[in-house]
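Input set for joint prediction.
Command: fold jointly, output tokens.
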Amino acid sequence: GDSVTQMEGPVTLSEEAFLTINCTYTATGYPSLFWYVQYPGEGLQLLLKATKADDKGSNKGFEATYRKETTSFHLEKGSVQVSDSAVYFCALTINKFYFGSGTKLNVKP
Amino acid sequence: DGGITQSPKYLFRKEGQNVTLSCEQNLNHDAMYWYRQDPGQGLRLIYYSQIVNDFQKGDIAEGYSVSREKKESFPLTVTSAQKNPTAFYLCASSIAPDRASPLHFGNGTRLTVT
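tokens >
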């Protein structure tokens, strides 16, 4: 069935470090792919999305490329800030949404 | 600003009591959803509705009920039949239930049942 697998956390980085959070998916059709961010005590916010192969989604310095050949949608940021500390969820949708289990990111000053 | 309002933010109930969580949206979205989030886990779909007066069970509907009498509102009732109701509940909406429409989330209600 359709599913999303993302790297387990927590991921701890120093400020200005490079971030990668891995996400791979399994889908029977042609899904759209999303990254959401959740700050403590809040709901999920859409960070970026890509709707077809080779699309690159980007927002607030984060980016992810839809790779059909490797069924991946890894999240990257060149220089993280303390304010990026949150839980990040990868998700796909074809006819319903499937979420990964979330990756907690801690950024130290 | 348009958005999704969930209330209350925190809710405490005794075991055996039914409780209703509110979800209102002013985004004019057709589809609405309820998810449950447990620590360290992803989101699990409880119920969803694509149109007024219609809704479908999600993956973990047992012990829950919903109604969709108005486009803007999608309340969730956690009944006494739900064996482990303590969790963080998230309401979401989308323009239409198609593959390109992202979900927009409320800020959640944390339910504690003792």
